[in-house]
User: What shape does this take?
Amino acid sequence: MTTETTTDETASASPETSGAYKRNVEARGSDVYQIVTNQIIELLEAGVVPWRKPWSSDDRLPMNLISGKPYRGVNVFLLHVRGFGSPYWLTFNQAKAKGGNIRKGEKSSLAVFYKTWETTDKATGEIKRLPVLRYYRVFNVEQCEGIDYPKPEARPVEFNPIEACEKIVAEMPKPPSIQHVEARAYYRHSADMVNMPPRETFAKVPEYYNTLFHELAHATGHESRLDRLQKKQSNFGDASYAREELIAEMTASFLCGQAGIERDTIDNSASYIANWLERLKNDRKLVVQAASQGNKAADYILGKLPSPVAVEGEAQ
Assistant: This one.
């Protein structure tokens, strides 16, 4: 991060060590949501640095799990930007041959290669060899079940939990299950489950909680909670997907503000929001709309809303 944005209400000492920190958190009112929204809008207007993934993962280039050969050319970019923690990829048939399977709902990624096509020149009879671009589909090993693969050694990083953040997570009404298995952060609607990268892979402790709050925000859209998520799965990058990402990041920003750690996360949150706004034609009004939905989601996580809605067939 190149800038640091704070408010007058932010404690100047480290949130993990300051005695005034706890009193400061308790003094915060509902206006914290508006303060955070204003900060994000100011950062968007000023221009923000590109969003960065706040946790580390296996830094090796993408490679095929079976052959061990690294992918080359544009494939390095196509697969690396998918954001998986493991560099290992394989085809559907390769996964099946390894005795595993692709997890239901997972989407494949594109890999390309050139194949030589021979043709005869009608005028000269000469054989010409032309490169023709072909593609095939691959899956990251983290999208598979029943497949063993090499995992990087954990980097010994000290993780000191932040009490206010732990309290928010622990007291969320009817929370989803949370696991730390794969080196990527996501919420799986079908299983009502949040996966987080291991805590020690995050460069800063506040960024772990910001990421967790983001995924818990997605979980508030479940039909047993605020019933915000579409029944039909959105495609990555489309308008509904982008709007949900805005809502989740606004929610995370609000919760970080509530816990008093927003000065350590606000810049990266603004960058993430800016990235999705580009997909929505940079309509800054969407920040305000997402803030409204994010406000509701944050209130749910903080236990400020009525009991969760009942799912059909579920006991009241």
Observations:
- The chain has two domains: 19-54+154-301, 63-145.
- Residues 19-54+154-301 form one domain.
- The chain has nine helices and nine strands.
- The first strand starts at residue 63 and ends at 64.
